[in-house]
Amino acid sequence: MHDSPKGASEDKPRRFDRTQSLEQKAEQKAEQKAVRESAEREIEDSGATLTRKEKRQVTDHSRLSALTVFSIIRREGEEELRRPSSSLWWSGIAAGIGISSSVYAQALLYETFADHPYRDLIASLGYTVGFVLVILSRLQLFTENTLSVVLPMLSEPSWMRLGRSGRLWAIVLTANFIGTFLTALAVLTVTQGVEGQYSSHVAAMLEVSEHAAEASGFTALVKGIPAGFFIAALVWMLPSSKGFELWVIMLFTGLIAAGGFTHVVAGSTEMFMLVVDGRMGVAEALYNHLLPTFAGNVIGGTGLFAMLAYGQIHAEI
User: Fold this and answer.
1) Are 95 and 139 a contacting pair, CB within 8 Å?
2) Are residues 176 and 31 part of one domain?
3) Which domain holds residue 47?
4) Which DSSP string corresponds to 232-255?
5) Residue 307 and residue 313: Cα distance in Å, rounded?
6) How far, in Å, CA of 226 to CA of 297, rounded?
7) Is 97 found in the same domain as 233?
8) What is the pLDDT of residues 125-166, one digit of tens each?
9) At what angle do helices 101-112 and 200-212 cross, to 10 degrees?
10) Using CA atoms, how far apart are residues 148 and 229, in angstroms rounded to an integer?
């Protein structure tokens, strides 16, 4: 029996996606081969008398060029832009829930080292937990996309790419916020005792959240710029950090917390906790904290790092 026209039409996008995936893998292998061959030629031109095994070891330990890193991240960005909206949505919600573990871990250390002179610095290590979870799980975190989905648009500008980037940003950021709000609501609802008292851990989370809320308005915007820059730098470094991804993530996200910088998604957990607990109004959380932080993260991630990263390889494309 022959397939119906409808079945055939449904099968075409699948075949197209498989073909695109195979083409991307072939391009990636070709780029990796080109990098190896280039490194081998440089070794031969240097006149060094190395065995084949030694040449391969030198090649394997060569750093990725800026153009290679750009190509890797651009390809990842193009793959994200082609993902279905439902995939981005659920991944974004999961990321929002996962990133909330940063606030919990930070509060846990904040409470444990209450009398320690370096309490805030030690608590900053807990802030890294959610980022490790989200980034290594390949979940959709908005601030990562300030670099990855922007590079394809910078290399080949078009209204279609701009529209796709805006679509992805809107879906992911909204999903992240829903994830963090649901987490804040669940934590405060489930842990509240019969007398309206919270556990010591939740009380510490609220204390950490109030401390974060001290940065508002223009201050939140300014402190959001370094955070956006650091996250974009982290994304740029990951292709060159094979085997050391955990330490790179912890280094830069811990620096965000230690420096008192603002991150729109992790910070939304803190703001939503204060909203749910009645310590802050929705309008105040949105206009005084989240929107300024959002603007700062975009300026730091897209306006600064993405432009500088593209500028250094523009003449090589």
Assistant:
1) yes
2) no
3) 5-60
4) HHHHHHGGG-TT-HHHHHHHHHHH
5) 10
6) 8
7) yes
8) 999 999 999 999 999 999 988 888 889 888 888 898 899 999
9) 110
10) 13
